């Protein structure tokens, strides 16, 4: 039977925000890195896919954070694959502090991309057998990312995609989108370390040199975000602060 993977983490000063706690984007980055390491250990990370001109891209993600670790503390990331279909593979995460208490949960859906056509690849015809071996029958620890509608109005800011924004897939890095979203959050909510839920939908790639517009609006206590170029929507997101 397949088992979950566990990765130890340590909070360094460069990972902190002004509250002396782990930045939320850095926590998400640690989770995504854990996913990459687990896929590498199991033989289906992006390096293994490179021979077939394929790579992994994040489609949707939802994370619920109750607390964030402090400077120099240790925490652990638990990750596992719970299922897949023709288009998407579901990978989940739980984060535990030094006392073994769960402080965050996350679920994500990944697609395999053909690097030439930039279109999705049928997982049942590629990594299906590997998925069957490593799937763990434990469901998502939180609800998957909900449906996010287009934003027609809101506060707008511009950002041109630069060298520091792009990753090995030659498109804008996931964490840069998340940092742009957190830059628009109420600073008092971060100061108070309020629990939150972040939903993300990745719709299209943003590439070097493109001008993006970040639109922000609030509806019924939820902050909504849309990041788009002139011709396409790249990301939609929502942040809801929890009681």
Write the layout of secondary structure elements.
Elements: E1 5-10, H1 24-42, H2 46-49, E2 54-65, E3 74-84, E4 89-96, E5 102-114, H3 128-134, E6 155-160, H4 174-182, H5 187-191, E7 196-202, E8 211-219, E9 222-228, E10 233-241
Antiparallel strand pairs: 1-3, 2-5, 2-7, 3-4, 4-5, 6-8, 7-10, 8-9, 9-10
Helix pairs in contact: 1-4
- Supply the CATH class of the largest domain: Alpha Beta
Shape: globular
Strand count, sense and closure of the main sheet? 10 strands, antiparallel
For CATH, the homologous superfamily of the largest domain is named as Hotdog Thioesterase
CATH topology of the largest domain: Thiol Ester Dehydrase, Chain A
* DSSP strand tally: 10
Describe the structure.
This protein has helices spanning 24-42, 46-49, 128-134, 174-182, 187-191, and strands spanning 5-10, 54-65, 74-84, 89-96, 102-114, 155-160, 196-202, 211-219, 222-228, 233-241. The protein has 243 residues and is of the alpha+beta class. It has 2 domains: 1-144, Hotdog Thioesterase (Thiol Ester Dehydrase, Chain A, Roll), CATH 3.10.129; 146-243, Hotdog Thioesterase (Thiol Ester Dehydrase, Chain A, Roll). It has a 10-stranded antiparallel sheet. A hairpin with a 4-residue loop joins β3 and β4 (89-96). α1 (24-42) packs antiparallel against α4 (174-182). The longest helix is centred in the N-terminal third of the chain and has 19 residues, at 24-42. The termini are far apart.
């Amino acid at each position: 039977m397949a088992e979950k993977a566990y990765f130890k983490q340590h909070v360094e000063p460069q990972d902190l925000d002004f509250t002396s706690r782990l930045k939320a984007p850095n926590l998400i980055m640690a989770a995504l890195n854990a996913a990459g390491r687990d896929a590498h250990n199991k033989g289906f990370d992006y390096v293994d896919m490179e021979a077939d001109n394929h790579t992994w891209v994040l489609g949707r993600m939802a994370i619920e954070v109750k607390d964030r670790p402090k400077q120099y503390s240790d925490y652990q990331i638990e990750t596992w694959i719970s299922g897949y279909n023709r288009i998407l593979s579901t990978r989940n995460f739980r984060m535990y502090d030094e006392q073994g208490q769960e402080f965050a949960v996350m679920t994500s859906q990944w697609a395999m991309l053909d690097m030439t056509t930039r279109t999705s690849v049928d997982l049942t015809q590629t990594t299906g057998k590997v998925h069957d071996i490593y799937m763990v029958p434990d469901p998502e620890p939180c609800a998957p990312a909900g449906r996010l509608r287009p934003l027609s109005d809101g506060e707008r800011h511009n950002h041109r995609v630069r060298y520091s924004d792009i990753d090995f897939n030659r498109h804008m890095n996931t964490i840069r989108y998340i940092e742009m979203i957190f830059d628009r959050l109420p600073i008092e909510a971060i100061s108070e370390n309020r629990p939150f839920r972040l939903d993300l939908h990745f719709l299209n790639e943003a590439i070097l040199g493109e001008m993006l517009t970040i639109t922000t609006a609030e509806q019924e206590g939820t902050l909504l975000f849309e990041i788009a170029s002139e011709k396409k929507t790249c990301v939609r997101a929502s942040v809801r602060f929890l009681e």
